[in-house]
Amino acid sequence: MSGAHDTKPVYPDEQESITIFEDMYEQYRQRISKYFSVKLNPLVADDLTQQVFLKAVENIHSFKGSSNLFTWIFKIAQNTVKNEYRRLSRQKESPYDFTDYESQSISLEFTKHVDIRIDIGSALKKLDEIDQEIIALRFFVDCTLPEISKIVGRRESAVKNRLYRALEKLRKELKEWGDIAIMSIQDLISIVNKGVSHDTNDRTKKVHQDLFDELNSSVERVSTKYKHHPSQKVVIEIYPDLPTFHQAVGETDAPNWFMGTYEGRILKIVSPLNPGPEHTYQSILKSTVHLFAMWLISDINPTAPKWIRQGIGGYEANQMSRDFIKGSTEDSIRNQTIPSFDELNNDTWDFETMKGFQFSYMMVEFVVERYGIEALNKLIRNPQDFEGIFQCSETELHEQWVNYIKI
């Protein structure tokens, strides 16, 4: 007898439940996976998520519809975590360490293209288990307060109070981040800490607002100028100091001037409140614009040369004064050691030594002033089409540029 004859029939209302379940899978899968990443290990999150939904399929008949489907599925996830803890305990292993999980961060959305993410991983370990759970559910799994209430089995008012107290504890643990981190956390929820003095609160708001103002005045302008609507939302991660930032991006021996980079859609910067010896509060703010512009060009064309990305970043952030550019490049210009376009694609720390930031800036400025912004937009999208855009070869364009900067 074939296997088809052994299969139990699917009745209409059961089929309807399965269809609803399949629709919910895509909606909730990522949230469940994030929960496993926080509580156990990002490396096993996907596998455990699959297990949860397989169990849910097997037990879909027990879902009565009187509760929220997400909280019903989440209970299975919680039981899976408990089982994993027991297994790890028997094997004398430990769950994944909060401090090693880079995505332990809180996001703050403030424009349609950019949000800010604050790393709070090590601070979370100082909280009680129930407080860790509530923070994780609220900020990493994106649960609403009613959902959290059902998941943890406490009244909504009790959850809100514990969330408030947990953020108070985080405030103390996050002192090294400065007021920008504190304000970011508070802005994520509708809870105002009235215990902060007026002066401190004003300072907090100013620091936070400075970063917002710098980006708000630039994001739409740069996106419009380069005729590109970002394909996805940018996240900005702020690290408390240079050593922490360098370690997070895998460059522990990086020079002090290296304070920001981007990976995918995530821009990573050091806190403007602790910029290190080579930067200032203001230069960090402008560097954020620089990084956004670089990311935007990469979003337009992932193969755009480094000198185009860096040049446009510096040009749009307006970080370097003309006197600084002139003073730092005059020896190279006088000695005729101006880098070629290929040399400006150097992806080592020598890029700074060869004045790559300055020369890339001057090249972009030259294209805009001599040929116009439309030519630059074409160059971004077709960086090898010198004949079609400028009616000259790459070598001839480089010679034009050299003559331009010698003036």
UniProtKB/TrEMBL annotation:
GO molecular function list: DNA binding; sigma factor activity
KW Chloroplast (keyword) present: no
Family: Belongs to the sigma-70 factor family. ECF subfamily.
GO BP terms in the entry: DNA-templated transcription initiation
Keywords of this entry: DNA-binding, Sigma factor, Transcription, Transcription regulation
NCBIfam families for the chain: sigma70-ECF
Designated name of the protein: RNA polymerase subunit sigma-24
Source species of the chain: Paenibacillus xylanivorans
Location of the RNA polymerase sigma factor 70 region 4 type domain: 119-170
Entry keyword Thylakoid: no
Lineage of the organism: Bacteria, Bacillati, Bacillota, Bacilli, Bacillales
Family matches, as Pfam families: Sigma70_r2, Sigma70_r4_2
Domain RNA polymerase sigma-70 region stretches: 24-90
